[in-house]
Specification:
alpha+beta, Peroxisomal Thiolase, Chain A, domain 1, 10-stranded mixed sheet, 11 helices
């Protein structure tokens, strides 16, 4: 067994639903992320990449037919570079990185490019095929943008509630007030704006010339500087008349792509740059589908156990903010200092293009550790239908690519 490392990360800005990136195809967004991350390793010969593992949650439209392979071809890589696409919904690109790390650690690969993409703006409507030709009744087009669709009637009804209703139920189990949720959301916007202003994302985000828009998107489009709790308090609940979840304290529909380059320590010479962080532990967990927002709690605990560390060792956490309520529930369950969570903003502000979010978390975490010089960080993401993934990174910046000293 060898160690696996994160060498580089890049992503597009995340665009709003029907916003600046809505005219850009998802396979083109994916290719931009591929080119962006490889630009950070200019000495790497693309033909040396053993595999590409790409995440995508939809796959019903222009991202069909193995969008990972399409990204490789559109990015101009040699046709000899293979690629696959994986779907673990919101966790797809993080799952891709974890798969890559396992392949590297077992010796099946030396250099693996991972990432993910989602265009929620361009997700198509679909029509189910009728049971017989020329049915007399009407057919309903179903949106594939988000959530359950074409549900199997054998599924228990409590499992197939909307994502918002599921999190209203989560709020009943792990209470947080509307004000607490809105305060969490304001913090996300504030920190995201501060991080962009300070230049943190300059090394992570690749500008996109928006197709048909006559503009270049350089910054995440959903950030609202100057947001206040009073402003969010004026928004109406989105899922229950007396609920707490609104458009202001939940992640928005988004478009974007992310990429992460992983390799072994021995691959440093071919990649041409030093690694950022070692993949030190992984965790996966599942529970009842409607409780998906709480699943990161145990996934993270398992990743820490496998890394041989505890929460007291962790200096940075990147937790995907699907909803403020589930983020608060996870942070409270871990019993950690909230200030170490999403210190550069989270998905409520930055956006949540499903298949790309895991790669964003991993890249942001590695760069946070490099910036602070602290040793241990954790990324975690909740996943629809009751799952979660987590990964522990160990900062190795300033060291050689040889395996870091294990705890």
């Amino acid at each position: 067994m060898t160690d696996s490392y994160v060498y580089a990360a890049a992503r597009t800005p995340f665009g709003r639903f029907s916003g600046a990136l809505s005219a850009t195809r998802p396979d083109d967004l994916a290719a931009l992320a591929v080119r962006g991350v490889l630009a950070k390793a200019p000495d790497l010969q693309p033909g040396a990449i053993d595999d590409v593992i790409w995440g995508n949650a939809n796959g019903a439209g222009e991202d069909n037919r193995n969008v990972g392979r399409m990204a490789v071809l559109l990015a101009g890589l040699p046709t000899s570079v293979p690629a696959t696409t994986v779907n673990r919904l919101c966790g797809s690109s993080l799952d891709a990185a974890l798969m890559a790390s396992r392949a590297i650690e077992t010796g099946d690969a030396d250099i693996v490019l991972t990432g993910g993409v989602e265009s929620m703006s361009r997700a198509p409507w679909v029509l189910p095929k009728p049971d017989r030709a020329f049915p007399a009744g009407n057919m309903t087009a179903v949106s594939t943008t988000l959530g359950w669709r074409l549900v199997n009637a054998r599924m228990p009804k409590e499992w197939t509630v909307s994502l918002g209703e599921a999190n209203e139920q989560l709020a009943e189990r792990y209470p947080s007030s509307r004000e607490q949720q809105d305060t969490f959301a304001v913090r996300s916007h504030t920190l995201a704006d501060e991080a962009w202003t300070a230049g943190f994302y300059d090394d992570l985000v690749v500008p996109v010339e928006a197709d048909g828009k006559g503009e270049t998107l350089r910054r995440d489009e959903g950030i609202r500087p100057g947001s206040t709790v009073d402003q969010l308090a004026a928004l109406k609940p989105a899922f229950r008349p007396d609920g707490a979840i609104t458009a202001g304290n939940a992640s928005p529909l988004s478009d974007g792509a992310s990429a992460v380059l992983l390799g072994s320590g021995a691959a440093a010479a071919r990649i041409g740059i030093d690694p950022l962080a070692r993949v030190a532990g992984r965790g996966v967990f599942a529970l009842d589908p409607q409780l998906f927002g709480f699943a990161p709690v145990e996934a993270a605990n398992r990743a820490l156990q496998r890394a041989g560390i505890g929460w007291s060792d962790v200096a940075a956490v990147e937790l995907n903010e699907a909803f403020a309520v589930q983020s608060l529930a996870c942070v409270n369950a871990w019993g950690i200092d909230p200030s170490i969570v999403n210190a550069k903003g989270g998905a409520i502000a930055l956006g949540h293009p499903l298949g790309a979010s895991g790669g964003r978390l991993l890249g942001t975490l590695a760069h946070r550790l490099r910036e602070s010089g602290e040793r241990w960080g954790l990324a975690a993401i909740c996943i629809g239908v009751g799952q979660a993934l987590a990964v522990v990174l160990e900062n190795v910046t300033g060291t050689s690519a040889a395996p870091a000293t294990r705890r």
